[in-house]
């Protein structure tokens, strides 16, 4: 108890005395992690596609975590984030005024996207996940469905098969993201569309900062507890490199309020989103956890005692190349000079008067 | 002697009776049996025109006897459980050379 109060006091003090200094400190600590993540993607860009050197996540561990989470009696209690993101993706699918004869959902979990869709949008559907239990618990739909157990990194489908590929909150655990995107591009038919979402950017920065501050203070160093995420700026390049055309990338922030840090961690575990980086630390001292919880509350806590956790969701839409798609005009084909653009505004203003 | 003790601590005999019953604290995590009740469908062969081997990206062959999807070139067999093909490379089984030859002769 002493530690707990002591830490919160220290935190409040630093916050009051030098808030700017405190922020600087956080910035300095976060840079190494961000740097590693961007260097990973940069290496991938240089080598083109699948490189054996890129092995950040323990995929078999992630599979175990997902199996554990979906075996919980109240597993659907932790679905709130996936359901929300799933409905937002479904909204984006409805924006495309088409009926897709054959669609695929990668990393479907308990079919969080497709439960919002109907027969008018999709004729036949393939559900793919690494987790067998979740795949069996998918909701009953009126769309004819085929289930396949497969890894996001090794998609077992023929080239030019699907008209639509969707993926929600599963690609952030993939080791070789450029390779996976390239595979998705391969299995799409020409003029097929990929609509996906993954967490990225500054997701869970509150948890990352408070754990790092607490570990530095208690243990004199810190380990990565939150995995490195893809930056929004890199995502466009990755999609372009994988061969997608007419890209749309946007970012959405979802803030969830929890009673305390321990509930944040418990819910992440329930979602099957526990840390599975190879260089993860196998244990976290109770002392450090209490300190981190106190820092979390002091630095980010709301007035009513709850603490926020931020999830930044990166949405991406990419189309496979087809000749009918909109293309940039030929060089030199313009009949209006760029120099007239400023004048055009004046002309349009003058027009109603004349 | 015992009576004296009992007089001093009147509750002890009662406690002695109850000692064997020791409740274990069960964690709130319980596992559900929904997965057990799943229907045992057979593999839909029409899927073969969409599915390929995740490693070589070549088409697969369905072996009804063993209920497996087989890649003859690499000698790998992927299991089918309750009609759901499991195409995760880690779960695949390597087929022995002899077994492969048997299958080949059957095909011929």
Describe the protein:
Chain B: This is Protein preY, mitochondrial. Chain B: Pfam families: Trm112p. The complex is a heterodimer of chains A (354) and B (108). Chain A has eleven helices and seven strands. With 354 residues, chain A is of the alpha/beta class. Chain A has a single domain (2-322), classed as 3-Layer(aba) Sandwich (Rossmann fold). In chain A, strands 3-2-1-4-5-7-6 form a seven-stranded mixed beta sheet, sandwiched between helices. Chain A is globular, with a radius of gyration of 23 Å. Chain B is built from three helices and five strands. Chain B has a domain at 42-108: N-terminal domain of TfIIb (Single Sheet), CATH 2.20.25. In chain B, strands 1, 2, 3, 4 and 5 form a five-stranded antiparallel beta sheet that branches. The chains are: A alpha/beta (354), B alpha+beta (108). Chain A binds chain B through residues 60, 71-73, 75, 126, 130, 132-133, 135-137, 146-151, 154-159, 161, and chain B through 29-32, 34-35, 38, 44, 47, 49-55, 57, 59, 81-91.
Which CATH class of chain A applies here? Alpha Beta
Write down the CATH topology of chain A: Rossmann fold
Q: How many extended strands of chain A?
A: 7
Q: What is the topology, as strand order, of the major beta sheet of chain A?
A: 3-2-1-4-5-7-6
Q: In one word, what is the shape of chain A?
A: globular
**CATH classification class of the domain at 42-108 in chain B:** Mainly Beta
* Rg over alpha carbons of chain B: 30 Å
Total number of strands of chain B:
5
Overall helicity of chain A: 40-55%
CATH architecture classification name of chain A: 3-Layer(aba) Sandwich
Strand content of chain B: 15-25%
Oligomer: heterodimer
Q: Let me know the largest β-sheet of chain A.
A: 7 strands, mixed
Q: Overall pLDDT of chain B, averaged?
A: 70
Q: How many domain units of chain A?
A: 1
Helical fraction of chain B equals 10-25%
CATH level-two architecture of the domain at 42-108 in chain B = Single Sheet
Largest sheet of chain B: 5 strands, antiparallel
- Helix count of chain B equals 3
Unreliable spans of chain A are: 1-51
Family (chain B): Belongs to the PREY family.
Keywords (chain B): Mitochondrion, Transit peptide
Main location (chain B): mitochondrion
InterPro entries (chain B): Trm112-like
